[in-house]
Amino acid sequence: MTREFLSGNDAFARGVALARPHVISAYPITPQTTVVEKLSEFVASGKLNSEFIHVESEHSALSAAMGASSVGARTFTATSSQGLLYMAECLTYAAGGRFPIVMMNANRSTALPWNIYGDQRDSLSLLDTGWIQAYAGSAQEALDLALMSFYIAEHKDVSTPFMANLDGFTLTHTYEVVDIPEQSTVDSFLPAYQTENKMDLDNPVNMGFSAGPDTNTEFKFKEHIGVLNAKRVIDECEDKFAKLFNRSYSGLVESYLCEDADYVIVTLGTIAGLVKDRVDALREKGQKVGLLRIRYVRPFPNEQIVQILKSVKAIGVLEKDISFGNEGTVYTNVNSALQKARLNIASSNYIAGLGGRNIEPKQIDEIFEDLKNEQSVVKFVGLGE
Length: 385
What we know:
By secondary structure, this protein is of the alpha/beta class. It is 40% helix and 19% strand.
């Protein structure tokens, strides 16, 4: 193992290279660009034996990845914001075809107004396309998630494309010390990709076909089960990862000081780091507060959320997203989990960080203070400030 000072993008690129993908299809877009640039350098220098395809658009990037995956190749691509929206048509094709492509998305605001900075409206607007979605919280987690995403996506019981999300600039371009595992250890963790879901001249199969009303539901049900199966495979993957790499992760969610908490902020991505700091500070003042970080939004951690939040007085879902005309998408999903479990907990939604606006420590404190009212509201944080 070596230790280097890397950005989140560089860390993820190192993880992808260690996974030995056969094909990388790429179209650069800010703030994703340095991921595919780094991978192209690895390929050009001979450090990575992979076919690097520089395509003319994001739509083509995912189309090329599907073509490669359809013959049994381990494939990777990356995108961001408008690029992700441009390839949206292909997302459902990849999921419906059960192609376990791994894609890194650098979370960035969507137009208009035009903006290159980070929020999570791009990926959260595409939750229903059939992809697994995970959100990294650090550069180390980004590298590790790159490795685990291939394991999870390619598992025979899952066979589902995987979108790994990194907050634009706050993670993609921020540098941290990162532990980089040895290639031999990664090879022990991530075996060579094998699948029966591929075109094969010796064993011909029908792929990418049409299905009418008489069978379409059955195919969609299998697609749904594949995503649900990821819950079990994620646990299996992280257990194996911990044994080989001596780093552990907490599955679909991360809980911090929620055991006796009265008030909890639920969030995802890097902002959880600031919330954790404020939880520590407020705990020193005697306040029973906690943090619940959602690591996977698909499959959604219904059971884990209910188990962790069942005894709290109020929660606040803090997210960099808004479903216009209603509320934040994460808030909708969290409330659904609580409702299905018949938990009567006051919940509020705090929309913040849109277009990369900074979220201040005092605003986290104000959210925790607001939760003491035990009401249910939807608020834009820092509006007009």
